[in-house]
Automatic annotation (TrEMBL):
One Gene Ontology biological process: methylation
Gene it is expressed from: Vcpkmt
Name of the molecule in the record: MT21D methyltransferase
Keyword Transferase belongs to the record: yes
Transferase in keyword set: yes
Length: 135
């Protein structure tokens, strides 16, 4: 696959280290780019086939920019795989609830059952969702 890994400007160096440390596993291409949620995504077009999200649901202030970015990045055939750890302390349950309410305005989601996840890495508090734009 041709992959673009993204994070904030201040984490680009770490992304490059990770790419370098794992280049022996890559059979396609990998590049690192800055992506700040809520900002222009023109340079990431056309829409990718897949978007992989890991642990992106944590700050209430980031929910709307994250959802805007997902709407702007996805096409009708884009599959978003979202993995997150369910946290039960503080405001985390409220933030998760709000995220999924807002997400379902424009997207359909399907929870991937635990028994369909990798046996070695699955955990009851780690959730994986398949997300698609509503048609």
């Amino acid at each position: 696959a041709n992959v673009t890994v993204t994070d904030l400007e201040e984490l680009q160096e770490l992304l490059m280290v990770n790419i370098e440390n794992n280049k022996h596993l890559v059979t396609g291409s990998v590049r690192a780019k800055v992506l700040k949620w809520g900002e222009d995504v023109t340079e990431f077009q056309p829409p990718p086939d897949y978007i992989l999200m890991a642990d992106c649901i944590y700050y209430e202030e980031s929910l709307e920019p994250l959802l805007k970015t997902l709407k702007d990045l996805t096409g009708p055939d884009t599959c978003v795989l979202c993995c997150y750890e369910q946290r039960t302390m503080g405001k985390n349950p409220e933030i998760e609830k709000k995220y999924f309410e807002l997400l379902q305005v424009d997207f359909e989601l399907e929870r991937i059952p635990l028994d369909q996840q990798d046996e070695e890495y699955r955990s009851a508090d780690i959730h994986v969702l398949s997300i698609h734009r509503k048609r």
